[in-house]
Amino acid sequence: MKKETTEYQKGLIYIISVYTIWGMLPAFWKLMDNINSFTILAHRIIWSFVLISILVWILYKPKDLWAPLKDKKNLLYFMGASIVITINWGTYIWAIVTNHLIETSMGYYINPLVTILLSMIIFKEKMNTLKKISIALAFTGVFIMILGYHKVPVLALTIAFSFASYGVIKKKMNVNSLMGLFYETAFILPIALSYVIYLEATGEGYFISLDIKEMLLLIGSGAATSIPLLLFASATKRINFSMVGFMQYIAPTITLIMGVFIYSEHFDKSHWVTFGFIWAALAVYTVSNIMDRKRKEVA
User: Fold this and answer.
1) Measuring CA to CA, which residue among 191, 238, 237 is closest to residue 38?
2) Do the beta carbons of residue 97 and residue 182 sit within 8 Å?
3) Which of 170, 155, 169, 115 is nearest to 138 (CA)?
4) Per-residue confidence (pLDDT) for residue 2, from 0 to 100
5) What is the DSSP letter of 259?
6) pLDDT tens readout for residues 66-87
Protein backbone atom coordinates (compact mmCIF):
# COMPACT_ATOMS: atom_id res chain seq x y z
CA MET A 1 0.00 0.00 0.00
CA LYS A 2 2.85 2.38 0.93
CA LYS A 3 4.57 1.69 -2.41
CA GLU A 4 1.34 2.44 -4.31
CA THR A 5 0.96 5.70 -2.37
CA THR A 6 4.54 6.71 -3.21
CA GLU A 7 4.01 5.95 -6.89
CA TYR A 8 0.78 7.99 -6.87
CA GLN A 9 2.61 10.91 -5.26
CA LYS A 10 5.33 10.66 -7.92
CA GLY A 11 2.61 10.70 -10.56
CA LEU A 12 1.10 13.87 -9.10
CA ILE A 13 4.50 15.57 -9.03
CA TYR A 14 5.13 14.54 -12.64
CA ILE A 15 1.75 15.74 -13.92
CA ILE A 16 1.90 19.07 -12.08
CA SER A 17 5.45 19.53 -13.38
CA VAL A 18 4.59 18.75 -16.99
CA TYR A 19 1.55 21.05 -17.12
CA THR A 20 3.56 23.82 -15.45
CA ILE A 21 6.31 23.36 -18.05
CA TRP A 22 3.77 23.41 -20.90
CA GLY A 23 2.17 26.53 -19.44
CA MET A 24 5.49 28.36 -19.21
CA LEU A 25 6.97 27.13 -22.52
CA PRO A 26 5.72 30.22 -24.43
CA ALA A 27 8.49 32.14 -22.66
CA PHE A 28 11.03 29.78 -24.30
CA TRP A 29 9.50 30.15 -27.78
CA LYS A 30 9.37 33.92 -27.28
CA LEU A 31 13.17 33.93 -27.12
CA MET A 32 13.06 32.95 -30.80
CA ASP A 33 10.53 35.55 -31.97
CA ASN A 34 13.13 36.87 -34.44
CA ILE A 35 13.22 33.47 -36.17
CA ASN A 36 10.65 32.44 -38.75
CA SER A 37 8.06 30.13 -37.18
CA PHE A 38 8.47 27.54 -39.98
CA THR A 39 12.18 27.39 -39.21
CA ILE A 40 11.45 26.86 -35.51
CA LEU A 41 8.95 24.12 -36.38
CA ALA A 42 11.42 22.34 -38.67
CA HIS A 43 14.14 22.37 -36.02
CA ARG A 44 11.64 21.27 -33.36
CA ILE A 45 10.87 18.18 -35.44
CA ILE A 46 14.54 17.41 -36.21
CA TRP A 47 15.91 17.79 -32.69
CA SER A 48 12.93 16.00 -31.14
CA PHE A 49 13.64 13.09 -33.48
CA VAL A 50 17.34 13.10 -32.53
CA LEU A 51 16.62 12.98 -28.79
CA ILE A 52 13.83 10.39 -29.10
CA SER A 53 16.01 8.23 -31.37
CA ILE A 54 18.74 8.11 -28.74
CA LEU A 55 16.23 7.03 -26.10
CA VAL A 56 14.63 4.42 -28.38
CA TRP A 57 17.97 2.85 -29.32
CA ILE A 58 18.94 2.70 -25.63
CA LEU A 59 15.67 1.22 -24.40
CA TYR A 60 14.66 -1.10 -27.25
CA LYS A 61 16.19 -3.89 -29.31
CA PRO A 62 16.21 -3.44 -33.12
CA LYS A 63 13.51 -6.10 -33.57
CA ASP A 64 11.22 -4.19 -31.16
CA LEU A 65 11.87 -0.98 -33.08
CA TRP A 66 10.67 -2.33 -36.42
CA ALA A 67 7.80 -4.45 -35.04
CA PRO A 68 5.12 -1.68 -35.22
CA LEU A 69 5.71 -1.30 -38.97
CA LYS A 70 4.45 -4.85 -39.61
CA ASP A 71 0.89 -3.63 -39.02
CA LYS A 72 -0.24 -1.58 -42.05
CA LYS A 73 -2.78 0.25 -39.91
CA ASN A 74 0.04 1.60 -37.78
CA LEU A 75 1.62 3.15 -40.87
CA LEU A 76 -1.57 5.10 -41.55
CA TYR A 77 -1.84 6.12 -37.90
CA PHE A 78 1.78 7.30 -37.83
CA MET A 79 1.24 9.35 -40.97
CA GLY A 80 -2.00 10.84 -39.64
CA ALA A 81 -0.49 11.59 -36.25
CA SER A 82 2.58 13.25 -37.82
CA ILE A 83 0.34 15.51 -39.93
CA VAL A 84 -1.98 16.69 -37.13
CA ILE A 85 0.80 17.13 -34.54
CA THR A 86 2.79 19.17 -37.08
CA ILE A 87 -0.26 21.37 -37.66
CA ASN A 88 -0.65 21.71 -33.88
CA TRP A 89 3.01 22.51 -33.24
CA GLY A 90 3.17 24.94 -36.17
CA THR A 91 0.01 26.81 -35.18
CA TYR A 92 1.12 26.93 -31.54
CA ILE A 93 4.58 28.34 -32.38
CA TRP A 94 3.21 30.88 -34.86
CA ALA A 95 0.58 32.02 -32.34
CA ILE A 96 3.21 32.59 -29.65
CA VAL A 97 5.83 34.41 -31.74
CA THR A 98 3.10 36.66 -33.19
CA ASN A 99 1.73 37.57 -29.72
CA HIS A 100 -1.43 35.44 -29.56
CA LEU A 101 -0.93 33.76 -26.18
CA ILE A 102 -4.52 34.45 -25.12
CA GLU A 103 -5.93 32.63 -28.14
CA THR A 104 -3.41 29.80 -27.57
CA SER A 105 -4.73 29.49 -24.02
CA MET A 106 -8.30 29.45 -25.34
CA GLY A 107 -7.42 26.58 -27.67
CA TYR A 108 -6.14 24.38 -24.87
CA TYR A 109 -9.12 25.23 -22.66
CA ILE A 110 -11.46 24.12 -25.46
CA ASN A 111 -9.41 21.01 -26.33
CA PRO A 112 -10.87 18.56 -23.74
CA LEU A 113 -14.38 19.52 -24.80
CA VAL A 114 -13.52 18.96 -28.46
CA THR A 115 -12.08 15.59 -27.42
CA ILE A 116 -15.43 14.68 -25.85
CA LEU A 117 -17.23 15.73 -29.03
CA LEU A 118 -14.95 13.59 -31.22
CA SER A 119 -15.35 10.66 -28.81
CA MET A 120 -19.11 10.86 -29.30
CA ILE A 121 -18.82 11.06 -33.09
CA ILE A 122 -15.97 8.61 -33.77
CA PHE A 123 -16.03 6.15 -30.87
CA LYS A 124 -19.81 6.39 -30.28
CA GLU A 125 -19.14 6.99 -26.60
CA LYS A 126 -22.23 7.91 -24.62
CA MET A 127 -22.03 11.19 -22.75
CA ASN A 128 -24.23 12.25 -19.88
CA THR A 129 -26.33 15.40 -19.94
CA LEU A 130 -23.79 17.48 -18.02
CA LYS A 131 -21.01 16.76 -20.53
CA LYS A 132 -23.33 17.63 -23.42
CA ILE A 133 -24.16 20.90 -21.66
CA SER A 134 -20.43 21.62 -21.21
CA ILE A 135 -19.81 21.19 -24.96
CA ALA A 136 -22.79 23.44 -25.77
CA LEU A 137 -21.57 26.16 -23.37
CA ALA A 138 -18.04 26.18 -24.82
CA PHE A 139 -19.16 26.48 -28.42
CA THR A 140 -21.80 29.05 -27.48
CA GLY A 141 -18.95 31.25 -26.27
CA VAL A 142 -17.07 30.76 -29.54
CA PHE A 143 -20.17 31.49 -31.64
CA ILE A 144 -20.89 34.65 -29.63
CA MET A 145 -17.39 35.89 -30.48
CA ILE A 146 -17.96 35.07 -34.16
CA LEU A 147 -21.44 36.57 -34.45
CA GLY A 148 -21.28 39.46 -32.00
CA TYR A 149 -17.70 40.60 -32.40
CA HIS A 150 -16.93 39.33 -35.94
CA LYS A 151 -13.84 37.50 -34.72
CA VAL A 152 -13.28 33.88 -35.60
CA PRO A 153 -10.76 32.39 -33.12
CA VAL A 154 -9.04 30.46 -35.91
CA LEU A 155 -5.85 29.80 -33.96
CA ALA A 156 -7.72 28.54 -30.88
CA LEU A 157 -9.97 26.24 -32.92
CA THR A 158 -7.03 24.90 -34.98
CA ILE A 159 -5.04 24.14 -31.82
CA ALA A 160 -8.03 22.51 -30.12
CA PHE A 161 -9.14 20.34 -33.06
CA SER A 162 -5.62 19.33 -34.15
CA PHE A 163 -4.61 18.19 -30.66
CA ALA A 164 -7.95 16.43 -30.11
CA SER A 165 -7.52 14.67 -33.46
CA TYR A 166 -4.02 13.66 -32.39
CA GLY A 167 -5.53 12.15 -29.23
CA VAL A 168 -8.06 10.18 -31.30
CA ILE A 169 -5.30 8.72 -33.49
CA LYS A 170 -3.17 7.88 -30.44
CA LYS A 171 -6.13 6.05 -28.91
CA LYS A 172 -6.42 3.88 -32.02
CA MET A 173 -2.68 3.26 -32.16
CA ASN A 174 -1.45 0.13 -30.39
CA VAL A 175 2.05 1.48 -29.69
CA ASN A 176 3.58 3.02 -26.55
CA SER A 177 4.10 6.79 -26.33
CA LEU A 178 7.87 6.85 -26.95
CA MET A 179 7.74 4.51 -29.95
CA GLY A 180 4.74 6.41 -31.34
CA LEU A 181 6.54 9.75 -31.06
CA PHE A 182 9.60 8.24 -32.74
CA TYR A 183 7.64 7.27 -35.85
CA GLU A 184 5.50 10.41 -35.87
CA THR A 185 8.59 12.62 -36.04
CA ALA A 186 10.31 10.18 -38.45
CA PHE A 187 7.49 10.50 -41.00
CA ILE A 188 7.68 14.31 -41.11
CA LEU A 189 11.49 14.42 -40.70
CA PRO A 190 12.41 14.40 -44.46
CA ILE A 191 10.37 17.56 -45.08
CA ALA A 192 11.78 19.34 -42.01
CA LEU A 193 15.34 18.29 -42.85
CA SER A 194 15.00 19.36 -46.50
CA TYR A 195 13.70 22.76 -45.43
CA VAL A 196 16.60 23.32 -42.99
CA ILE A 197 19.19 22.19 -45.59
CA TYR A 198 17.65 24.65 -48.07
CA LEU A 199 17.89 27.47 -45.52
CA GLU A 200 21.54 26.68 -44.78
CA ALA A 201 22.36 26.44 -48.51
CA THR A 202 20.80 29.85 -49.21
CA GLY A 203 22.49 31.49 -46.21
CA GLU A 204 19.25 31.95 -44.28
CA GLY A 205 19.97 29.29 -41.66
CA TYR A 206 21.66 29.59 -38.29
CA PHE A 207 24.29 26.85 -38.26
CA ILE A 208 26.70 27.73 -41.09
CA SER A 209 26.54 31.38 -40.01
CA LEU A 210 27.31 30.23 -36.42
CA ASP A 211 24.65 32.25 -34.61
CA ILE A 212 25.41 30.54 -31.30
CA LYS A 213 22.38 31.79 -29.33
CA GLU A 214 19.93 30.81 -32.06
CA MET A 215 21.68 27.46 -32.60
CA LEU A 216 21.39 26.52 -28.93
CA LEU A 217 17.76 27.62 -28.76
CA LEU A 218 16.84 25.62 -31.86
CA ILE A 219 18.65 22.52 -30.59
CA GLY A 220 16.96 23.00 -27.20
CA SER A 221 13.55 22.89 -28.88
CA GLY A 222 13.95 19.11 -29.09
CA ALA A 223 14.32 18.78 -25.32
CA ALA A 224 11.54 21.32 -24.73
CA THR A 225 9.24 19.10 -26.81
CA SER A 226 10.32 15.61 -25.77
CA ILE A 227 10.97 15.88 -22.02
CA PRO A 228 7.43 17.06 -21.10
CA LEU A 229 5.91 14.34 -23.30
CA LEU A 230 7.98 11.66 -21.55
CA LEU A 231 7.07 13.08 -18.13
CA PHE A 232 3.42 13.02 -19.21
CA ALA A 233 3.69 9.35 -20.22
CA SER A 234 5.26 8.49 -16.83
CA ALA A 235 2.53 10.38 -14.96
CA THR A 236 -0.34 8.64 -16.76
CA LYS A 237 1.01 5.25 -15.65
CA ARG A 238 0.91 6.26 -11.97
CA ILE A 239 -2.33 8.23 -11.51
CA ASN A 240 -5.91 7.83 -12.74
CA PHE A 241 -6.79 9.51 -16.01
CA SER A 242 -9.48 11.73 -14.46
CA MET A 243 -6.75 13.40 -12.39
CA VAL A 244 -4.68 13.85 -15.55
CA GLY A 245 -7.69 15.53 -17.15
CA PHE A 246 -8.40 17.75 -14.17
CA MET A 247 -4.78 18.96 -13.93
CA GLN A 248 -4.59 19.89 -17.63
CA TYR A 249 -6.10 23.32 -16.93
CA ILE A 250 -2.86 24.36 -15.19
CA ALA A 251 -1.11 24.91 -18.55
CA PRO A 252 -3.62 27.22 -20.32
CA THR A 253 -4.16 29.15 -17.07
CA ILE A 254 -0.43 29.92 -16.80
CA THR A 255 -0.31 30.81 -20.51
CA LEU A 256 -3.31 33.14 -20.14
CA ILE A 257 -1.76 34.91 -17.13
CA MET A 258 1.54 35.31 -19.02
CA GLY A 259 -0.24 36.70 -22.07
CA VAL A 260 -2.18 39.33 -20.12
CA PHE A 261 0.24 40.33 -17.34
CA ILE A 262 3.72 39.67 -18.77
CA TYR A 263 3.33 40.21 -22.51
CA SER A 264 0.49 42.78 -22.17
CA GLU A 265 -1.82 41.23 -24.76
CA HIS A 266 -5.19 42.95 -25.08
CA PHE A 267 -8.00 41.17 -23.20
CA ASP A 268 -11.24 42.83 -24.31
CA LYS A 269 -14.96 42.29 -23.71
CA SER A 270 -15.22 39.64 -26.42
CA HIS A 271 -12.55 37.60 -24.63
CA TRP A 272 -14.35 37.93 -21.29
CA VAL A 273 -17.62 36.67 -22.82
CA THR A 274 -16.00 33.76 -24.68
CA PHE A 275 -13.75 32.71 -21.78
CA GLY A 276 -16.71 33.06 -19.40
CA PHE A 277 -18.67 30.45 -21.35
CA ILE A 278 -15.59 28.20 -21.66
CA TRP A 279 -14.84 28.42 -17.92
CA ALA A 280 -18.50 27.64 -17.16
CA ALA A 281 -18.27 24.67 -19.53
CA LEU A 282 -15.15 23.39 -17.78
CA ALA A 283 -16.82 23.77 -14.38
CA VAL A 284 -19.78 21.66 -15.55
CA TYR A 285 -17.39 19.13 -17.14
CA THR A 286 -15.38 18.84 -13.89
CA VAL A 287 -18.54 18.34 -11.80
CA SER A 288 -19.62 15.61 -14.21
CA ASN A 289 -16.24 13.84 -13.87
CA ILE A 290 -16.40 14.00 -10.06
CA MET A 291 -19.92 12.56 -10.08
CA ASP A 292 -18.86 9.76 -12.44
CA ARG A 293 -15.93 8.86 -10.20
CA LYS A 294 -18.11 8.76 -7.10
CA ARG A 295 -20.59 6.47 -8.83
CA LYS A 296 -17.77 4.07 -9.75
CA GLU A 297 -16.45 4.10 -6.18
CA VAL A 298 -19.92 3.27 -4.81
CA ALA A 299 -20.40 0.52 -7.40
Assistant:
1) 191
2) no
3) 115
4) 58
5) I
6) 888 888 888 899 999 999 999 9
